[in-house]
Write a structure and sequence with these properties.
Elements: H1 8-26, E1 31-39, E2 45-54, E3 64-69, H2 73-79, H3 91-98, H4 112-116, H5 134-137, E4 140-150, E5 155-165, H6 169-177, H7 183-194, E6 205-206, H8 221-241, H9 259-262, H10 265-273, E7 283-288, H11 291-295, E8 300-305, E9 312-313, H12 317-323, E10 334-337, E11 341-348, E12 358-364, E13 368-379, E14 385-389, E15 392-396, E16 398-410, E17 413-415, H13 423-434, H14 443-459, E18 466-471, H15 473-482, E19 488-493, H16 500-503, E20 509-513, E21 518-523, H17 540-559, E22 564-569, E23 575-578, H18 584-598, H19 605-617, H20 623-635, H21 639-653, H22 660-672, H23 676-688, H24 693-711, H25 718-741, H26 748-761, H27 764-777, H28 782-795, H29 798-811, H30 815-827, H31 832-843, H32 850-874
Parallel strand pairs: 4-6, 7-10, 18-20
Antiparallel strand pairs: 1-2, 1-5, 2-3, 4-5, 7-12, 8-11, 9-11, 10-11, 12-13, 13-16, 14-15, 16-17, 18-22, 19-21, 20-21, 22-23
Helix pairs in contact: 1-8, 7-8, 10-12, 13-14, 18-19, 18-20, 20-21, 20-22, 21-22, 22-23, 22-24, 23-24, 24-25, 24-26, 25-26, 26-27, 27-28, 28-29, 29-30, 29-31, 31-32
Length: 875
């Protein structure tokens, strides 16, 4: 649909592509969807637009951005599953609503049957009894901000709502609960306030002469994220200086502050990370805290404390690199520093931390380091102890040490989260494979998950790489016996996690069941090599794991007995999980491949089927991509396949507003499969969801035609038959009238179809009038003449019917026309002269039927012969 506000689509595309590029610098798995609410100078909502990634146009490849004008702002909140009535329709109201975590939506899945039940032909389905998936919710955030835009005509306030997906749980919690130490929140805030340049005259964003928007500091996404990394470390340094407590607050906006540029903590840390010591890369940890914390002898127990005069400044990178060799994370021994210098080597009495802000910096090799927020939290323990002192009761329990990763930096580039392994990701994978729908309140269930997570984490300590295979107990028992010649079997049982790194020192995988019992070590996995399995750029361990998993997956298809999760651990401790969590980027590429395959002449049906199954089983696939596949099949006239993709797309769409033309295309697919009732339902949805009157004309005509076709199925039920015909007439009439105000190529066929309805209702006069109207727009259309001929014949207008059948044959030869004309003239010999006269009038035109000429000539000769016979009789 055309944008109502000039250049708003260009602004939206630039904002979308810029923000997506920035967030993908932080984590490639992050994907976004953008909504724009465009307010004019009177604060009236001028337009609501959805912006998202979609399939490129035919013949193109790569990312394409689609922009759909939503019919109503309620559609936007429906998609976000937000309470429309609770949102104040202003930037402040929208931002206030989405800044609260409790307002964040849940992702729901419902079946197509549930979605379409209890809906009339023009009602949009509304979900009932929605099911909640907490694990999906924990990876999504919704954020709002705004930009002022000048488009050479007026100023607009464009309120953007950003849906960010695949955000790891830790970062999501920071985003909402501690926004002032959330790097992701800072990136988002600064993008809207400090990325684009503003026009000096209007103090607003303006499109330049190159149809672009200038950035404030001439930055691309990489340079912007690096600048924000420096500011984030400057911000943390400021908190350390100011002795800010852990109760930082919940202010949701990051103000632009110049002092973040002055504090240069990042440069000092980065310099340390580039130094080696006796050829070894930097590893070790520094704890940063305020000076008052360091002076507290109860909180900090120094092993080595430097004299006041010999504190080591953070810019003395060589000395600090050497001192890192003294630290030992396992023994809780760190370098202790304030915002400016190192005070010594020591450990922390975490029991007394209270609300003191402590940051931990881990060096992980050349130019690699992570910044953590460290705090403690009381944990329920089985080993608590009740103490009585001075008639007062105390219960001593455990404190859990929590380390929240704030940011990772690798060669000056910031990263959010690990793209490989996190406990949350692993546990969610286990739940989805083995315990889908299991309640998190079950303690035994949670203990199993924690045990399996600990097994993988301990396996990472093994320095040569390994694999951890997890299956159900029966599968584990069968598989290790089958692989006994290429493994070492042990009595199934628990393994002390501390010993796992030794048990994985030999080649092969370590095999566990879902209860955490180990069944074998050194297992050499087998599997069948296939072209579509594995990755030639990866090692043997990775590819053998994939082959084995696919083999069990094939078994699972047959007898539900091959569920499996494999953790592949490389030498550097990185972890790949199989099955891999779904990646929208890969799904987008896969969708493009499917569409390309559909359009190929010699397609590989088996390979195409495998790819289609991935899309049709995905829980994160964008509905628009499924619709694009459905359209490709529709164009190839493979309507059943098209319907399967459209129906799953609707299921995935949930409350999303999708374009009315998709309803129309699906209706056309049902039409071609003669499912006219479903076609009517889809056309009805299209009608109610469109504001484009030119398109609405098409949908009205389509639903009218569908009612006409459906009426043929109820000819024996006169009441139902007539009711459907009258509905067809109503919709066709509305479509015809709309076409008069929004010109289309021709309404001739619509007049024709409406006339057919009148004919079946027995109103011959209106039927003849309808065919006449059709002929007024397309005078030479033979089928309209044929239809009018049939009605005139029934009504007794023999001369009129004669002229129509002659003209129909004259314009387009058809054996039926010749047969009908022949029969008509045989029965009405007295009309031969009229037929000849009418034909001669037509014969001056260019088009003519040779058979018609022969037939007329035949009857002319018959007339001449009859005249001669009569003359002879007189004589």
């Amino acid at each position: 649909m055309e944008s109502k506000v000039e250049n708003i689509n260009l602004l939206n595309e630039i904002v979308y592509s810029s923000l997506e590029g920035i967030l993908k610098e932080l984590n490639k798995r992050i994907h976004i969807k953008l909504y724009a609410l465009v307010y004019n100078e009177k604060d009236s909502l001028a337009q609501t637009v959805r912006i998202k990634k979609t399939i490129a146009s035919s013949g193109e490849h790569g990312k394409s951005v689609s922009q759909d004008s939503l019919q109503d702002v309620s559609n936007l909140y429906g998609e976000l599953k937000a309470d429309f009535s609770a949102v104040v329709n202003s930037y402040g109201g929208i931002k206030s609503y989405f800044d609260k975590e409790e307002q964040q939506p849940y992702q729901v899945y419902i079946s197509n049957d549930e979605k379409l039940k209890n809906t009339t032909e023009n009602e949009v389905p509304i979900e009932q009894d929605l099911r909640v998936e907490d694990s999906i919710r924990d990876t999504k955030i919704i954020y709002s901000n705004h930009l002022t835009f000048y488009n050479s005509q007026a100023l607009y306030n464009v309120v953007y709502i950003v849906e960010v997906r695949n955000v790891e749980h830790e970062n999501r919690k920071l985003f909402y609960h501690e926004p002032e130490i959330s790097f992701l929140r800072m990136i988002m805030d600064y993008f809207f306030s400090d990325y684009f340049a503003l026009d000096n005259q209007y103090n607003a964003i303006k499109i330049n002469n190159n149809n672009q928007i200038d950035t404030k500091y001439n930055e691309d996404s990489l340079h912007f994220t690096r600048r924000l990394t420096r500011l984030f470390f400057g911000k943390m340094q400021g908190y350390l200086k100011d002795n800010t407590s852990l109760e930082i607050g919940t202010r949701y906006d990051n103000e632009l502050r110049s002092k973040y540029y002055v504090d240069n903590l990042l440069e000092k840390i980065d310099e340390i990370s580039t130094k080696t010591y006796e050829g070894a890369s930097p590893f070790g940890s520094i704890l940063f805290m305020n000076k008052e914390c360091i002076r507290n002898p109860l909180l900090i127990r120094f092993t080595v404390k430097f004299t006041k005069e010999d504190h080591i400044r953070l810019d003395d990178s060589k000395r600090i690199r050497k001192l890192l060799e003294l630290t030992n994370v396992d023994k809780d021994l760190y370098l202790i520093a304030d915002d400016n210098e190192i005070h010594g080597l020591g450990e922390v009495n975490w029991n007394l931390q209270k609300d003191a802000l402590i940051l931990k910096l881990d060096f992980n090799g050349i130019s690699k380091y992570n910044l953590f927020l460290v705090r403690t939290d009381a944990e329920r323990s089985n080993y608590g102890e009740l103490l009585v002192s001075n008639d007062r009761k105390f219960y001593r329990s455990d404190l859990k040490l929590l380390e929240t990763r704030l940011i990772s930096v690798s060669f000056k580039n910031p990263r959010l989260g690990e793209e490989g392994y996190t406990p949350e990701k692993f546990i969610n994978l286990l739940k989805s494979v083995f315990w889908e729908g299991q309640s998190d309140c079950d303690d035994i269930f949670n203990q199993k998950l924690e045990k399996l997570d600990q097994i993988v984490r301990k396996s990472r300590e093994q320095k040569h790489g390994t694999m951890v295979v997890i299956t159900e107990s029966d599968v584990a028992k069968f598989e290790v016996e089958r692989l006994s010649k290429q493994s070492t079997l042990i009595e199934p049982g628990n393994i002390n996690p501390e010993y796992i790194k030794f048990l994985t020192a030999i080649d092969g995988a370590i095999y566990f069941d879902i209860d955490g019992n180990c069944h074998a070590i050194g297992v050499i996995l087998d599997g069948i090599a296939k072209e579509s399995i594995g990755d030639a750029s990866r090692g043997a361990r990775y590819n053998s794991a994939h082959r084995y998993w696919h083999k069990l997956k094939d078994i699972n298809k047959q007898n539900e007995n091959g569920k499996c999760v494999i953790a592949i651990i490389s030498e550097d401790g990185m972890v790949d999980l199989i099955p891999e969590s779904e990646d929208e980027g890969k799904l987008l590429v896969l969708t493009e491949e499917i569409i390309d395959s559909i359009n190929e002449e010699n397609l590989d049906t088996e390979k195409l089927k495998e790819k289609e199954e991935v899309l049709l089983q995905s829980k994160i696939i964008d509905c628009d991509w499924l619709f694009k596949v459905g359209e490709a099949y529709q164009l190839k006239k493979k309507y059943a396949k098209a319907i399967s993709f459209f129906e799953y797309g609707m299921e995935r769409a949930e409350r999303s507003y999708f374009q009315p033309e998709y309803f129309n295309v699906l209706g056309n697919c049902y039409w071609h499969t003669k499912d006219y009732e479903s076609a009517i339902k889809m056309y009805g949805f299209a009608i109610t969801k469109t504001d484009d009157l030119k398109r609405k004309h098409v949908y009205l005509i389509n639903i009218g035609n569908a009612y006409l076709e459906l009426s043929h199925e109820f000819k024996k039920d006169e009441q139902k038959h007539h009711s459907l015909l009258n509905k067809a007439i109503d919709y066709l009439t509305e479509g015809i009238e709309l076409a008069k105000t929004h010109p289309v190529q021709s309404s001739a066929m619509h007049y024709n179809r409406r006339a057919i309805c009148y004919y079946h209702l027995g109103d011959l006069t209106k039927a003849i009038d309808g065919f006449t109207m059709a002929l007024a727009e397309e005078p030479n259309k033979a089928v309209f003449l044929w239809n009018r001929y049939l009605v005139k014949k029934v009504s007794g207008d023999i001369i009129g019917s004669l002229e129509d059948i002659i003209e129909a044959e004259f314009n387009e030869h058809n054996k039926d026309y010749i047969t009908q004309l022949n029969n008509l003239l045989d029965k009405n010999r007295h009309l031969i002269k009229e037929a000849n006269t009418f034909y001669n009038r037509l014969a001056g035109q260019e088009t003519e039927s040779s058979e018609l000429e022969i037939l007329i000539e035949k009857y002319n000769k018959a007339v001449e012969l009859s005249s001669l016979t009569e003359d002879a009789a007189v004589k």
